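note to self: the first set is below, dont mix up w the second
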Amino acid sequence: MASNVLKISSPIFMGNPIVYQATSEAEPYDSNTQQYLCTFHRVKMKLTITNLLDSSVSSYELSCPVSAGGETVLFDVSSAFRAAADAFEPSPVSAETMFPLFSAAIRLRDVWVRDGVVVDPAPASAGYTDVEPCLAVMGAFSDYERHLLSQSVTFSRKPATGELVCVGDVVVYGGSKAVGNNPIVPHSFVTVITQQQLHTQVTLGNGQKVYVTDTQRGSRQFQFVNSRGVVESIRAWYRDEQTIAASNEQHTISRFELFNVFARRITRKFAAHTELSLSSGFVSYEWAQWWAYEFCQSEHIWMLSDDGIWLPCSVTLNDSYSVIDRNGINMCHVDFSCIPDVDGAMW
């Protein structure tokens, strides 16, 4: 069986490589004929992944070919974790919410094939090497963060300088807390901004700062799944337009013709959706980077409608432009378009 199993890449986020190294067993050899007793040799890894949030279990198997006994093989188990996490559907948050923590029981074994038949010199129960369980959560470090020498496990990438919120906002922020024997379990926490906090600075539970202003009609609140796999909120500001994009298709339908009924009829298919032009507002360079690389890159975004309903939407960063221009006097800002994933008027 495989030996010297070592975890050589150990981020907690399944969006990055989680790599195990193992040494394959020597191939079976017949000293009488002085020949190896196998044609093909592989090391197989069996993963039994449990979602500790709902106790669902799924199994996966990875394999790596071996050219000679005693060879070192590498397994990246992050793909198995991501496959197990595909069943989880995120949604907007209104109260403290725990996000999935996945635990994988890992076993390795050598498999030999001779003349198309699997050769198993050892009993199945004794042929496995058990490995210490591996924990992983949704999310990922960016490529730049992976180049850094130290990577701190945080569940928000918002700059420390703070953001603007309005009275009545349900501010959602990412963090973690211990649950049972697991010291790091991702959570989204909630703070409701009250009238008494107007024109003050509020420090959230994860240390982030927010500055409370009056209710603003020219802005929209969003919730989104950040790169760390938890839900956060942010407020964006209207620019100078709100457009309705419409498309028309006309088709000719043929039907039975009578003296006063013509054989041709034109029908129309019409689709329209609201497109909002929004902006981060004037922000620092660090916040401009956050808007461009964190919020606008999210795959799950919801916008709060005027009726208090969280609508799924698609956010598209506008064409390339200068976030910062040291030759001019313009301040940093990031402009983007938001299209709700629903039809019909929003008022």
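second set (the one i keep forgetting abt)
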Amino acid sequence: MSDQIKTYKEEVASKTKEFQSEKAELQKAIDEQKDKAKKAEEAATKATEEAAKAKEAAEKAAKEGGSGGAAPASSSAEVDKVNAELQKAKKEVQEAAVERERFQSQLERLVTELEQKQVGQNAS
């Protein structure tokens, strides 16, 4: 009987260690996703600022009448480029947020599962 209890205790300790390891891995993945989301958000902010600057430059060039037709077209192309970067950054932010939520829910599920197994094995 005591050998069986010892075996169960060893199994519980092993499973607990395994779950803690998985929990740590998931937390690391969540942290990485948070970093990605933060970087994407920073890129989106930077792109927004650049788009505003490009728009101001284009408006200024249009008001001045420009010295030639190439400057407004160049500014317009620059605005389009910055807007494309902005859209890309926004998409990355959204994807990172979805991924972070997925990892968070997976972590919560594993923590709940671990707690249930610990309670169940402690009750035995």
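remember for set 2: The chain has one domain: 2-123.
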